[in-house]
Design a protein that fits this description.
The complex is a heterodimer of chains A (about 200) and B (about 300). By secondary structure, chain A is mainly alpha-helical. Chain A is built from 6 helices and no strands. Chain B has helices at about 5-20, 25-40, 50-60, 80-95, 110-125, 140-150, 150-155, 190-200, 215-225, 235-245, 250-290, and strands at about 65-75, 100-105, 130-135, 180-185, 205-210, 230. Classes of the chains: A mainly alpha (about 200), B alpha/beta (about 300).
Chain lengths: ~200, ~300
């Protein structure tokens, strides 16, 4: 059995979390709160460190250009003061504009045009047929312009729904696979690193 | 309650009980299916898929003069799947003598880079600064990748420990992202897509190691050739360990992974069979009851 206090802590916390599978209990609730608290503290520490390292620190060291984003950040809080609340729109507009520019520039080619081009392929193999039919019928499902669907459109939309269900099933299967991958190291920690029962 | 009064009724009850099996029995079955193969490994064989082989080929084509960006963009919640991938590919990169720059888009990235290199650097004779460098955490995700792609040296003036990049031999000759031979991103989110959107158009091949959940989102980029290779989940890591002939933590876990999947499939099959058989037996019981009462259901 391990003598490492870190392993003991991790193993005991893991067992308490597992205990929820048997029944809801106060120890599980305590560990749940501990987790939320640590996660919140971690997020705050990361945010503060970012602010200190990328902006506040350089500004205090004489890099006056850094006072501009600092001022912008402070102006975001102006919305809590009714008289100057309109000032919060200035940094918000800057953030929105920059984000939109970066996203549109990046995604238009690789995530839109090239993806559309990727579906314009010869129907010479089963893979290609599935890809083209799947794309067209899934789009057909989301064509809401017509008041009623009938004939070919109805059949295409129904097929599109089945194809989406297959895709969601595959995504869910991957999620289950991931959960199993997460469980394996925890079992190894408790039965191997802590109790020393595994080879 | 006609269903419980006859032979078929009892069978229907049995099937119905199976269909609503206590979830704790399901948990115990899955738990044991993982624990037992860890205790007594079965040694199931692993075949290397074409996707993993494509990643292997890209890494294997690197030379000693090449510098590679490795981006550990994952968090502890997916460490079990993605870290074994990172260690396996890093082992291959170091065997090819490629220089490595760790770009950290996540706070935890630096921790994983240090953890991996603490083990691998002495094994492959790598020295910090000379053969590899760890860059500081860069917040912003897509904005950060766009910034790195537009102006690498403008984004990074120093490494994670404060040393000016001009003093690190690992990045000698690097002026922009075009000077890198490859981007390898290990992710659980969209970071690979950001590299495809901002680094790939500059001619840098991108390969990725991803958690199982992320694989369906990256597959369209693989199909269009924008992603040069993709390995997914613990299985992908195990395949890569097989490809480089270096069994590691992923291969050791594959017996447990395979058996747990088999147990889940068996439980899904059992649950569905129980549901449909109970439904069929209910219908039979109702029909018999009708016949014995001259068409009236009691």
């Amino acid at each position: 059995m391990s003598r490492d206090p870190g392993i003991w802590t991790a193993a005991l916390l893991t067992i308490v979390v597992w205990s929820y599978l048997f029944k809801q209990n106060i120890l599980f609730q305590a560990v749940e709160h501990l987790f939320v608290g640590i996660a919140a503290a971690h997020a705050m520490t990361v945010a503060f460190t970012n602010l200190r390292d990328t902006c506040l620190g350089p500004a205090l060291m004489g890099d006056w250009a850094m006072t501009v984003p600092l001022l912008g950040g402070l102006l975001l809080y102006a919305r809590f003061l009714p008289k100057i609340s309109h000032l919060s729109r200035i940094p918000l507009a800057f953030v929105m504009g920059t984000a939109a520019a970066v996203v549109i520039r990046g995604s238009l080619g690789p995530s839109f045009i090239q993806q559309v081009a990727g579906t314009i392929i010869p129907l010479t193999s089963p893979d290609n047929v599935i890809l083209v039919v799947g794309t067209v019928t899934t789009i057909a499902y989301f064509l809401f312009g017509r008041k009623s669907r009938s004939g070919m459109m109805d059949h295409a939309a129904r097929l599109g729904r089945y194809i989406m269900m297959a895709a969601f099933g595959a995504a869910y299967g991957n999620t289950v696979m991931m959960r199993m991958s997460l469980l394996i190291p925890r079992i190894r920690l408790v039965f191997g690193d802590w109790l020393g029962l595994l080879p | 309650m006609a269903a419980v009064n006859g032979e078929w009724g009892y069978r229907a009850m049995t099937f119905r009980r199976l269909a609503v099996l206590d979830s704790r029995i399901v948990y115990a079955a899955v738990f044991l299916s993982i624990l037992l193969p860890l205790w007594r490994p079965l040694g199931l064989s692993i075949s290397v898929s074409q996707g993993t082989f494509d990643v292997y080929e890209v890494v294997d084509s690197l030379s000693q003069d090449d510098t590679v960006i490795v981006s550990p963009s994952f968090a502890p919640s997916s460490e079990a799947e993605v870290y074994p991938q990172m260690e396996a590919i890093l082992r291959h990169l170091l065997a090819r003598k490629a220089r490595v720059a760790f770009v950290n888009l996540n706070v935890e990235g630096r921790m994983y880079a240090e953890k991996a290199m603490t083990t691998l650097a002495p094994e492959f004779g790598y020295n910090y600064g000379e053969d590899y460098v760890i860059l500081p955490f860069t917040p912003g995700l897509e904005t950060a990748v766009a910034s790195i792609s537009d102006d690498f040296l403008g984004t990074y003036e120093r490494d994670a420990y404060g040393t000016p990049l001009t003093e690190t031999g690992a990045l000698a000759g690097i002026r922009s992202i075009n000077d890198f031979a490859l981007v390898v991103d290990f992710n659980t989110g969209d970071t690979t897509i950001y590299y495809i959107q901002h680094a790939k158009p500059r001619g840098i091949p991108v390969i990725a190691g991803a958690s199982g959940v992320t694989v369906p989102y990256l597959t369209p980029y693989l199909a269009t050739g924008q992603l040069s290779g993709l390995i997914g989940g613990l299985r992908g890591a195990a395949e890569y360990e097989t490809a480089i002939d270096n069994p590691g933590m992923a291969l050791a876990a594959m017996d447990a992974q395979s058996l747990s999947h088999a147990s889940i499939l068996a439980l899904i099959g059992l649950g569905n069979a129980a549901y449909f058989l109970a439904k069929r037996d209910d219908a039979r019981t109702t029909r018999r009851s009708r016949q014995s009462n001259g068409g009236e259901l009691k």
